[in-house]
Amino acid sequence: MGSCYTRTTCRLCGSAELALVLDLGEMALAGAFVRPDQFAAEEKFPLRVSFCERCHLLQVIDVLPAETLFSNYFYHSSAIGTLRSHFTELAHEIADRWATAPGALAVEIGCNDGVLLDPLVARGVRAVGVEPAANIAATARAKGLQIENRFFSTEAARDIRERYGPASVILANNVFAHLDAMDDVVGGIAHLLDGDGVFITENHYLGSVIEELQYDMIYHEHMSYYSLLPLERFFAQFGLVVVDVRPIPIHAGSMRFYVRHAGHPVSPAVEELRQAERSRGYDRLETFTTYADRVAGRRADLLALLRRLAGEGKRVAGYGASGRANTIIQYCGIGHDLMEYVVDDAPYKQGLYTPGSHFRIRPGTALQEDRPDYVLLFAWAFADEVRRRNPEYFGSGGRMIVPLPDVRVLD
Q: Is 55 left (phi over 0), alpha (psi -120 to 50) or beta?
């Protein structure tokens, strides 16, 4: 699996002023789904989160090599209808606003299976994807997309610029959270980006993690939880400036940051967000220690409900074999006495088992065939889509347990 090391300095500013705020215990990697013959060899690693008191970044300090985490990956963005619609809208914005010149180049870092590249190419944008996971890159190439199967770095940026020219648009959607070597990546972005270009990065927003107690976003693959305050300071080292911000609902609360070389006008929305973050205490340690206490309370609430249902003889299945699910299962200690299996609509996960907890992953049709009394909705951010996909189950009395932001049961 590769060795796990513990950071003693902030990955953005290099400060040693790291304060531990949350310890989730020993966890198997959230994205490492397994077969029964792999159970005995499965490894677990500490998962702890610290707050940098200098630049205010919230970050996982237990780090595994990127090759361990991402060289083979199970997350296919195109399998989720909500994501397909979201990235199609973003592709139209890019084509209409940012990549308007003939031959303008868009480069996406961490392009996954091409969920954004597809609609970009359909709009006539020259697009290149950079994807380190060999299995995911192969899926994207099979669609006819131009893919570089490698990790993005300053060296990769030089190669791409030499082969394709400078980029009018660089994209990194839900990628910054996965990076430990931030200097190397952002240095590459600054090199590859045209003087009038824009770097657009979309990340799960720290405010959502804190305000809605989304501890399920915390796992080894998600190394950092971003707000504007630490990002502005970090980008400035590379001559880059956040010129606009836009909150978006995807993944239960994300923020899109528009970044350009210094000298371009800055939207008033940037100052508004900066002030809002300070007023909410995202630059103060006590905000995060309070958050940790509230997270422990949600764990207790969920376990109390599951134990009550088990005592009543009710059967529970999980819905959504995601990284979020695996954090909830392992942190809460949900055992096979409280839940029987997990369903997921992605065929490549079906038949495998969840990491650490070893729940079998079955297709969504199992809900109609087996009729558990409840589903524990790990994919709670996609509740409406889950309802639409399973009208027969929910229409005939199946009930839904939503674990966050509050533990509740929905008919």
A: alpha
Buried b (16+ CB within 10 A) or exposed e, 373-404: ebbbbbbbbbeeebeeebeebbeeebbbbbbb
By CB neighbour count within 10 A (0-12 exposed, 13-18 middle, 19+ buried), where does 301 fall? middle
pLDDT recorded at residue 251? 73
Q: How many beta carbons lie within 10 A of that of residue 350, not counting itself?
A: 17
Distance of CA 161 to the CA centre of its chain: 28
Q: What is the mean pLDDT of the chain?
A: 93
Question: So what's the pLDDT on residue 384?
Answer: 85
Instruction: Specify the amino acid at residue 267.
Output: S
Beta strand 105-109 with 126-130 is: parallel
User: Do residues 377 and 401 make contact, with C-beta atoms less than 8 angstroms apart?
Assistant: yes
370 and 393 in contact (C-beta within 8 Å)?
Answer: no
Whether the predicted pLDDT of 78 surpasses 70: no
Q: Nearest CA to 280 among 217, 213, 362, 206?
A: 206
Q: How does residue 11 score in pLDDT terms, banded at 50, 70 and 90?
A: very high
Residues 173-194: tens digit of each pLDDT:
989 999 998 999 999 999 999 9
Cβ partners under 8 Å of residue 43, min gap 6: 1, 28
* Alpha carbon distance, N-terminus to C-terminus of the chain: 42
